[in-house]
Amino acid sequence: MTKALVGRDIAQQIAEHSSDAVVEFNESCVVVRPDLLLKVARFLNTTPGLDFNYLNCITGVDYLDCIEVVYHISSMVHNHSLILRVRCDRNKPEVTSLYSLWRGADLQEREIYDLLGVVFVGHPNLKRLFMWEGFKGHPLRRDYL
Amino acid sequence: MEIDKLKAELSLDDMDLAEGREIEALMARSQKPIPDPDEWLQETLKANILVTTIDKIFNWGRHYSTWPFGSGLACCAMEMVPTAASRFDQARFGMEIFRASPRQADMLIVAGTLTWKMARALRLLYDQMAEPKWVVAMGSCAITGGTFAHSYSVVPGVNRIMPVDVYVPGCPPRPEALLYGFMKLHEKIETGTVKKDFILGDWKKTRIVLGMGKGSSRAIEA
User: CA-CA distance, B82 to B73, in Å (whole number)?
Assistant: First the structure.
């Protein structure tokens, strides 16, 4: 069984590495700043003992006051997992792309861009995935009609 | 038989000799071929010539040889598959395997939800099918868009993309329902006329033009 790491412990380690990256944390997850996401993710990926080498999935959530992107990551080496969350402004949602770290982020980031309008800065091919080119709006936003 | 009568008292050599005599006798009486019983042919053939119309013979052929082109777009495809398999066996109606190419098919079964993005591809496939061709809209989504009729991405009924011959309702329809749809389509085929199809070219008028991409340029001209 994969061991879910405690958010508090990881938040402490992240804070030691980059002091102002952590916004919030609780038992199950860590919320980090969107512009420092890549730095944090690289830290989680490369630090011995953490070795998060696999991105399970990316989820976009529209909370009306903000848009949140949730990353489920895990380590094949130590068989543990972590939930990483990023909050961004709903009017100008921008998150750093994790494509350079985990190739699996490619299509999932495109999907979230397509349906929720989150711009993943640094993505090599940020185009619509499900809807066609020229489609107006982002249909999974809660105010889309 | 000679062999049977003498079996008890004859030696094996004697039995071989007796068998040899029977073979000689068979050869002797089989030197001429027995005439084939073909005297009846001439007379009965006369009674079997039927007079029919071009339409009837064409419709008969089309009716019993409808090749389906399955486009399993959504969950209806799960009902379309057993329709072709042994339990329901659409081969009973003259429809064998599903063709993977539109160029080898006469009947397009739209099984499932059609999205606008897929609609372009499906119209292209429909255009590639050779005339005469028929379309079966299977399931609520194909008929009207179903639950997703007011959605941002779903076509509210495939009749916006191509003319539909038979609508099979259900969500999804059971294989029996689809087979009944086939029977209704057969009834429709029986009413067709070659003159309408080939001479007057009426089928062209029924085409709905979807002006997207290179592939549909022929359809626009038509």
Answer: 16
Distance set, CA B56 to CA A71, B4, B61, B62, B183 (Å): 65, 62, 9, 10, 17
Predicted TM-score (pTM) of this structure: 0.70
| Residue A70: closest CA among A92, A42, A50, A98 | A98
Q: Give contacts of A 80-139 with B, CB under 8 A.
A: 130-132, 139
Terminal Cα-to-Cα distance of chain B (whole angstroms): 81
- Spell out the CATH class of B54-221: alpha beta
- B205–A contact, CB cutoff 8 A: no
* pLDDT 10s digits, A128-140: 888 888 888 899 9
pLDDT at B40: 65
Residue B213, chain A, CB below 8 Å: the answer is no
Of A18-32, A96-110, B137-151, B206-220, the poorest mean pLDDT is in B206-220
CATH of domain A3-98: 3.30.460.80
Q: Do the chains contact at A144 and B152, CB–CB below 8 Å?
A: yes
The residue extents of the domains of chain A are: 3-98
Check if the beta carbon of residue B84 is closer than 8 Å to that of residue B72: no
User: Which residues of chain A are within 8 Å of residue B116 when distances are taken between CB atoms?
Assistant: 132
A131/B153 Cβ within 8 A: yes
Contacts of B153 in chain A (CB under 8 A): 130-131, 139
In chain A, the residue whose alpha carbon lies closest to the alpha carbon of B115 is A131
Contact B153 A144 (CB under 8 A): no
Judge whether B113 and B146 are in contact, CB under 8 Å: yes
Q: How far is CA A53 from CA A43, A46, A56, A75, A80, in A?
A: 11, 8, 10, 5, 11
Q: Do B152 and A139 touch (CB under 8 A)?
A: yes
C-alpha–C-alpha distance, residues B171 and B181, integer Å: 15
The string of pLDDT tens digits covering residues B165-215 is 999 999 999 999 999 999 998 888 888 777 655 555 555 444 433 333 344
